[in-house]
Amino acid sequence: MVQSHTPTETLETPPVPEHLLQREIPLTENARKVLEKRYLRKGLDGKPIETIHEMFWRVAWHVAAAEDVLGGDRQKWAETFFDMLTRLEFLPNSPTFTGAGTPLGQLAACFTADMRVATIDGLKRIADLQVGDLVLTHQGRFRPVTQTMQRSYNGPLYRIKVKLIGTTLEVTPEHPLLTPTGWTRVEDLRVGDKVAVGFPQGEIPAPTFDLAELPFPEEIESEATKTQVRARRPATYQHSGRQSQWCRRFITLTPEFARLCGYYVAEGTIDTEGRYVRFTLSTEEREYQRDIVNLIESTFGISPTVNDSQQGRWTNIDLYSRTIATWFQAHFGRGSAHKRLPAWLLFASREVQEEFLVGLFRGDGLFFERIYTVKGRKSPKTFRSFRITLANPGLVHQIWQMVLRLGYHAAIRPTDTTYVTPNASETAQVSMPPLQSRDLIHRIFGIELPEPDERFVRTYVTEIDGRPFFEIERIEIVPFSGTVYNCEVAEDHSYITEGIAAHNCFVLPIEDDMGKIEGGIFDTLRNAALIQQTGGGNGFSFSRLRPKGAPVHSSAGIATGPVGFLRVYDKAFGEIAQGGSRRGANMGVLRVDHPDIREFISCKAQEGELENFNISVAITDAFMEAVKNDAEFELVSPQDGSVWERVRARELFDEIVKYAHHNGEPGVLFIDAANRDNPVPHLYELEATNPCGEQWLGPYENCCLGSVNLARHLAWENGRARLDWEKLAQTVRKATRFLDDVVTANKYVPAVPELREAAERARRIGLGIMGLADVLYALRVRYGSPEGQELAAQIMEWVRYHAMLTSIELAQERGPFPAIEGSIYDPNNLKWQPPTPLEPYTHDWGRPAVEWERVVEGIKRHGIRNAAQTTIAPTGTLSTVSGVEGYGCEPVFALSYVRHVSDGDKTLDLYYFSPLFEQALTHEGVDEETRTRIKEAVALTGSCQNVEGVPEALRHVFVVASDITPEEHVRMQAALQRFVDNSISKTINFPETATVEDVAKAYFLAWELGCKGITVYVTGSREKVVLETKKTLLEKKGEKASDALKQSVPVYQAAEQQTAQRKARPRSLTGTTYFIHTPLGKAYVTVNRDEEGQPFEVFANVGKAGSDIAAVSEAIGRLISLILRLPSPMSPEKRLEEVIDQLSGIGGGRPMGFGANRVLSLPDALARVLKEDLQKHGAPVHETGNGNGSHAPTPPPSAEQPDLFRGVLNADICPDCGHASLVNEEGCRKCYSCGYSEC
Question: Which residue ranges does the record annotate as region Disordered (predicted)?
């Protein structure tokens, strides 16, 4: 298959602000290669179409888009994020780099502002929805809005007109609507297709109302006995008793009472003081009047008064009772424009609802029948209409949903009544098919209608399992520019807008079904493929699938089993290029008690099998206890809970260990440990992780990860390093906000709307670290030692502490995560406890105190924004970009190694040699010859442990992955795990000589210390690896490693030539500033030196700021500084000698001075100063000249010399003659040498 390059689209991003373009990004050459290959946007030719500055700005700008939604300052935070990213203090995970600002997966499923959503209180504009509003979902129940969203949209708008619905749905193309075949994007719908309409479903028991519990106003006095209740105004009680008469206290919902409620909604009013309820009917409707009176007496035990009005043909039935008036107002509202139907009526029985409609239609309904003849037709035609029209569209919509629930295919439309009353209120009408409604019409009006036949069936309505689907009548596509809206709805992820069911808009559940139900095997595969297309990975739990060979009754076949479908998934993912550049990473998980566990354990024994999956066994505490006690263990079918087999636990454990020792897979996940820390146990049990195993996730959740670069938080003073704890705290705070913004700004796959709902529900983030090994090297602490374990714990505790404080502040600013009620962070039932270290602290690294009580109090007061805050990810590529030596929390893999980076079908090899080790050798005073010999040996094996000449202090500290014992690896992971609320991606490295028993011991230790998972790797057990030493690489090629030491070109030099890693600038340097006269004016030259006394940087300032002369002098200084900071076999002093050699003797057109004091040009003057500085620090300098002339030994440049250009001080370069004699004079720029003028 041939893949063609296609340009990567980006959403609109403003230009990088000018002041940010000047920011120097401290990237190594390897980092630039990785950015170009992996993260920069590409054009049709596959070449980058954005710069590195533009890439970082794209990420910062589009992540900060969340600030617009959440009430922050987008520009301010975009610049803050850009600053943090370009200083390499924090980097998000790869999908944020590749996905930010791209349309793939863009959440564009929204409605225009006036689209109305069905809520429990009637219709509400989607633009007016609030978090907490209860909206009707496609499941026919009311669920709360968990988030509202709005965004600017410029593009096509679909106007969809559905038959029987008089309003038009205005929606963006990607929004899914419910159709008979499932959720379908609007842009895929056609005229004639059918969409679902929504109404309340299900039935609740008939309620009984206690009128004594009504919300009476404070000024009203109420009394109650066991059976009766009354309410009154104390001041008027003695003179007016009708309003305060006793009525029945307990009222049960019956069909008869529902009919009375229907009369109230149609004809009932409550006086302004709330004293009585009045029903107003025509004087001719005596039967209805008697019905109302009887219903009042039988329901409340009160007799109303009946009076004919003197102003017209009306009869008033007055029910004097404050109690009853308060009840009707509380449940149905008062005033024609404000009435609504309560939830208990919307879910009432059919008998209750039909009787309610009887009372309602008797009051406000209309049945009309007209018989007429048509010319040329023998038999007459009959026109019938059965409808109700009210000046209350929200109430009409509820009535429409009620009749739909009862099975009537009713129509709804707005009506224009301004022809009757010019200032008429907004009105709507429900129209029901008369013959389909013949029984109801008979009960209401006593009219007999004929039986309907097929001619009266509405063919544009289809019913499936009791749900009606209405036909699309018209689709109009128009351009639109403005604000569109959406909302998140708990559990059902949908809502009803303009009567139509719409979906709200990365661990995936796999149910034991081929795809008929949501979450079935192939439904999940389809979702996973869409996620991978956007650059996301997936985690799958296959534990719910029935075992291989189990019967499948629906097809009379037998089950394929989890491993069979795992292979199907792997094959599908093999054809998907993730994000257009690499294949997807996936995690497959199976519980240890599944009957197919043996097949799963061995499914990757052959390298290359299931190459798109990592696999892990979910191990339970019960299993580990059985292994410990050498007991039997049951393998249970998830289909029916039956026991398929009893096995010896230790034998099964040995199988897991054997294959892990063989090639590192399967990994192990301690599922009970993970669920003990599950922040939202009320939502789900954890079953699977993301592809690298560090992030436990619930169904459809994703991992929003990022890592703080610890190496960028080191401060150097007098050659010694310390950790800058306050700077680290500030970065953690900014990074936490960044990741919370990512949750909102993330463009989830529109076709899988469950992704956003799950992400927003818990708002999980995973802030981690990288460069831990760099910090340990710098502080001279051995990785894996007790001191190393404690330092790692103190750092991670500091990160977790400040991440939680920031999350609490965000909760105060933006609100806590929606699912907080019932979680371990529920402020009303706080179960979370502050973490504690694995071992008590005994060392002081200058860290400020941690006050966990602040966190506890903050959660109780404000909640917390993120259900999970910390995760330690592997950060392989990010570490390369950041220039750190230790990936994630791992030790340094080797002091010299080759990293293989995937580049499409090719592999990009990046060579590394540890700059920290090289600097340490120099700092320890190791001479150059010995350093060279050490580097050659280290470049081969990657370790300095058996290399002669390495100082013992360095040998102790500069350990690499293979030098650390498995127990030390595990204990480091456990020490960190105590302050990581999710999990950790870490590899436990074993030497080639490791046995199966060694691996088993590591598994048990990890379980006992509370780790949530463990991955092992025995050196040499895989052919394809990301990192390897020169020795391993040579042995794969069949060459002897020992021969490498005999090569004429030292191995370390080859590695260094590949690694153009510029030295980072320390926080402070010391230096000397010199003054010298030049043909272009006075020059001030500063030479700064590092802590080792070597020249590090040069600054040259000549002329007035902003002039061409100043620019040229600054450029020369920058280039000299770059030469001094780049790696080289030559010392910085030797390099500076070469610079002097190149600059000395360069002649110009206006030399100045005489004899030994003669200065030929600006470069010649700089050479004199640099030479003086070398001589000042005792470096011998040979006399050279490489310009247009030569000269005698140079006197001190600071000696007084005649200023031949005193009259043209601060002159600039003339564009005509090139002399430094262009000056501002009388408002014009003139040259004193050639007469050139700009005027």
Answer: 1178-1202
Mean pLDDT score of the chain: 83
Beta-carbon contacts of residue 193 (< 8 Å; ≥ 6 apart): 179, 184, 471, 472
Catalytic residue among 110, 261, 505, 692: 692
Buried-state track 387-405, b at ≥16 Cβ within 10 A, e below 16:
bbbbbbbbbbbbbbbbbbb
Tell me whether residue 270 is in a domain: yes
Residue 665 lies in a domain: yes
Question: Based on the domain organization, do 267 and 123 belong to the same domain?
Answer: no
Q: How far, in Å, CA of 1239 to CA of 1228, rounded? A: 6
For residues 143 and 226, membership in a common domain is answered with: no
Question: For the chain, what is the domain count?
Answer: 6
Q: Which of 958, 965, 933, 927 is nearest to 943 (CA)?
A: 958
The one catalytic residue among 504, 527, 614, 690: 690
Domain boundary among 911, 932, 960: 960
Picking from 1159, 1177, 1195, the residue at the C-terminal end of a domain is: 1177
Residue 23 lies in a domain: no
| CATH number for position 183 | 2.170.16.10
Share of the chain above pLDDT 90, in %: 46
Does the annotation mark 505 as catalytic? no
Question: What is the SS3 assignment for 407?
Answer: coil
In a domain, residue 852? The reply is no
Q: Dump pLDDT digits (tens) for 586-644.
A: 888 999 999 999 999 998 888 778 877 889 999 999 999 999 999 999 999 887 788 89
d(CA 663, CA 1023): 9
d(CA 496, CA 162): 14
Are both 618 and 480 inside the same structural domain?
Answer: no
SS3 1103: coil
The answer on 468 and 337 residing in a single domain is no
Same domain, 1165 and 1114: yes
Closest CA to 899 of 883, 910, 907: 910
Domain co-membership, 539 together with 667: yes
Spatial distance between the Cα atoms of 459 and 476, rounded to a whole number of angstroms: 23
- Confidence class for position 1209, pLDDT limits 50, 70, 90: very low
Identify whether the C-beta of residue 388 lies closer than 8 Å to the C-beta of residue 364. yes
Same domain membership, residue 538 and residue 436: no
Please report how the helices 649-663 and 621-628 are oriented relative to each other, as an axis angle in degrees rounded to 10.
100
Contact between 221 and 233 under an 8 Å Cβ cutoff? The reply is: yes
DSSP string, 1018-1051: ETTS-SS-SEE-HHHHHHHTT--HHHHTTSSS-H
754-790 exposure pattern, b = at least 16 Cβ within 10 A, e = fewer: bbbbbbbbbbbbbbbbbbbbbbbbbbebbbbbebbbb
What is the residue range of 612's domain? 521-677
Q: Is 692 a catalytic residue?
A: yes
**643 CB contacts (<8 Å, ≥6 apart)?**
634, 635, 636, 637
Q: How far is the C-alpha of 914 from the C-alpha of 658, rounded, in Å?
A: 34
Is residue 1208 scored above 60 in pLDDT?
Answer: no
Residues in contact with 767: Cβ distance below 8 Å, sequence separation at least 6, in sequence order: 705, 706, 707, 708, 732, 735, 736, 739, 799, 803, 869, 870, 871
Catalytic residue among 50, 694, 918, 1172: 694
106 contact partners, CB below 8 Å, separation of at least 6: 11, 174, 747, 750
Tens-digit pLDDT profile for residues 147-188: 677 666 667 889 999 999 999 999 988 788 999 988 787 888
CA dihedral (171, 176, 177, 179) positive or negative: positive
The SS3 of residue 617 is strand
Q: In this structure, are 148 and 230 located in the same domain?
A: no
Q: H or E element: which one contains 468?
A: strand 467-489
Amino acid 1050: pLDDT? 36
**Residue 1205: pLDDT over 50:** no
Active site residue 1238: no
Query: Taking the chain, what is the end-to-end CA distance rounded to the nearest angstrom?
Result: 67
* CA dist., res. 846 & res. 717, Å (int): 15
